[in-house]
Amino acid sequence: MGNPGREPDGLEPQSPRLEGIALVNLATVTWATNIALGRWLRADIGPLTLAASRFLIASLIYALLLWRRPAEERRLGKDRWLVLGMALSGVTLFAPMLYLGLRYTTTANATLINGLGPLITGLLATLMIQEPMSRRQVVGAIASLLGIVVLLSGGSPAFWQGARVNIGDLIILGAVALWGLYSVLGRRVMRHRSALSATAFSSFLGLPPLLLAAVWELQRIPIQPRPELIVAILYIGIAPTVIGFLAWNAGVRRLSASGAMVFYNTLPLYGALLGTLVLGEALGPSYLVSFALIIGGGLWAARGR
Fold this sequence. Notes:
Helix content: over 70%
Number of strands: 0
Oligomer: single chain
Strand content: under 5%
Number of domains: 1
Order of helices and strands: HHHHHHHHHHHHH
Distance between the termini: 25 Å
């Protein structure tokens, strides 16, 4: 597969750490919009149909991007089972579980549970690829989790009085664990394969089960096509799925699975910022505190690598 230490275009990044931080933050920006749209579309399209639609669009784009790549990037090699694991965890199962969970729980609960992602991923990386979290990464993950708590609660204990665990929370927790598994497997695969090749083939292999599931779901949850729905699906297929997944995997390649996941908790920060820019929602002092904890925790963790 060539030299795994080089990017497929043959250019050595001068600052892999900074590039990795920028890439994973680009991914979480696009995914913040995906969560908001997934919540908005929950009454218009089933979770399986939405997941199948986004990865069908993305797979077509990945196929075009791979068309002129070297031959070794356009075929499965000895790592096919690891790529299949990426496909099942990050494509076939993760997206439907995320959208399904959002049908039964609140955005606040889903955001808080996602904050456990770095710690779950660190545990998986330690067990599966012998890449344990450093002390800096553990501290950074805990700091970012505290940042999410501050962001959601606004510093008020009343937040916890209204918090309730429901089936949607458990589904979201399962989705977070699957994403951690996807990131760990991707880290292993990208030792010998480019981020584009790993992302594309995991999408190709994960798409067929999603299409079959979508056909089954459409008989029970039919959709009513309208311009807003079509535009939203196209956006989700391009920005969060193509740009977001490619940026994330490229960031994992530079930072490690645990190092990238520390920045996964920027999702609610960008979600709140989008609410301000799009809906005019005000940001209180708690946002600045959570921003400092989440971003500061991520940068602290990244310094240790």
